[in-house]
């Protein structure tokens, strides 16, 4: 098991956004999270890399890192949690005044203090991998949304995380640009990256995922293989959601 999450709960003030989230993730597997807007999907993802701190819950990683949020958590533990994953945001969040290449090298050189020449080679390799060999020296405003998101993916990969997190990576994109981003994510799945993907792209989720969670109202209503959850859902709420969006 790569990660086991038990009893994860998160509130914003009175608003209980995650109520009791339990999920196990295998190393090298792709977990997709689907569900209506406001069901807590993004908050779940942000808890996984400490962008939000849970109120309760136990995270147990394969390498022994264990965080019990019922107890107080040190900054060092939060940092260790953060280091495990790379996040790809809905709105790309690139540095506007840096080129594609500089966006990718920034984290590994400034934050991780890795060797500049090694990072530069890696960044170029990653930008080639996401299909941007001829766009490396352009600035975000000179790139399409799909290209910017592929820089976002390269940037997250450059930190060499164990886990990749995608927060609705295609929802800001024009329809004709969605495919190029989904293809990159599919390639990562083939390379056995461990990934959690919040998405509204049900067809994509069914192709790429090993496991699907359907969330509603801060709970996981149903979880299982894509076949089980997306093709033969048992719960009425899952059926209604899929009927609405398919
Ligand atoms: P989803 O990703 O499924 O659309 P979210 O996790 O974004 O759901 O949001 C779930 C609920 O949490 C919403 O009611 C939202 O308003 C609330 N929420 C999310 N982030 C914050 C925040 N930083 N502060 C206050 N409320 C938040």
Automatic annotation (TrEMBL):
Stored PROSITE patterns: ABC_TRANSPORTER_1, ABC_TRANSPORTER_2
Subcellular location: Cell membrane
Keywords in alphabetical order: ATP-binding, Cell membrane, Membrane, Nucleotide-binding, Transport
One GO molecular-function entry: ATP binding
Keyword Nucleotide-binding: yes
Pfam families: ABC_tran (PF00005)
Membrane topology per record: Peripheral membrane protein
Chief location bin: membrane
Residues in ABC transporter domain copies: 3-242
Protein name: Amino acid ABC transporter ATP-binding protein
